[in-house]
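Hi X.,

You mentioned you wanted examples for the new student's onboarding notes, showing what a folding record looks like when two proteins sit in one file. Here is a clean example. The first protein comes first, with its sequence line followed by its structure tokens.
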Amino acid sequence: MIGRVVKFLEVAPVAVFALAAAFVASSMALALRPAEPAAWQAFMTLLPVMREPVYLITGLAGASHGGALLLFAAVALAGCLLLMSAARLTHLRFFYSHGAFLALLYAMGQARVFQAGSEAVAYGEASLLDWSLDLSRFPAYGVVLFGLTAALCLAWHAAMLHDMARARAVARDTRARVAEALRQVKG
């Protein structure tokens, strides 16, 4: 049951990178056909969620929209291959899901979803406990993707901790067997 839930959650990072590729493609379509309503609709739908991660990549020296499209499409395709892979590949899946999580976190941060302090005391010192989360500044599908990706990241953290505990138990058992074998050889 948990495996099926994790498989479902693994779709979220793939969707994040696929949406980023779709955003770049929509901006390229908009540049080619500025009067096309479908291009405007795709661009405006994806703009609030994917703008900042895409503009971060396209703002790099030597980067272009075509390169960003290839990058995000390749990363989305790699995620599809990870989904279909029978191998566990915990570390790779861990980094992949965290890449999508960081992209969404960056987009939400740039949309000013997370705020410290109230607006009334904007120039005073903010309390450490006075944080607000204004989800109205981010589209619902972005919030859902963020939640699913965060849940997947937590699942991969739990899986890695479980793997480390299992490896430690195996190492402890191996040391105990080696110590017992050495005692039998000496005795």
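Then the second protein repeats the pattern, sequence line and then tokens:
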Amino acid sequence: MAKVVEASSAKVAKAKHEAKAFAQKAEEQVVEIECKSEERLVEARQLAIEAFRAFEDFTWEWASVIEVYKASNELHKEKIAFNQGTYEIGYGAGFDDCQHRVAIQLPKPDLSFLDKDDEDGDVGGGEAFSQKSADVEE
């Protein structure tokens, strides 16, 4: 029986030794994983900082390009073309509407001198203004 106890003790000692070695190996792996995780976190932070700086540089570059474009002749020409088109579209409707409203408010004066069809350059100022003056005096 002493031999059996001795054999069992040897097996237990061997199992303890294997368990300690396994635990030691597991601890080393945990430490290695923690180090790798820390390195990856540092890399991620650096990448985030680089991305933020790149975005900031892009934003400044974008703003400077916009400022250069605002000061360019190309934008000026586009604005003029847009304004001319808007004026041509809006002038007809806006002027006719204004003339119509004035005619409703002041039915007596002759506003025919404001017609766009009169292309001879004469605004007909004499008759219309004298009629207007006469109406105001009455």
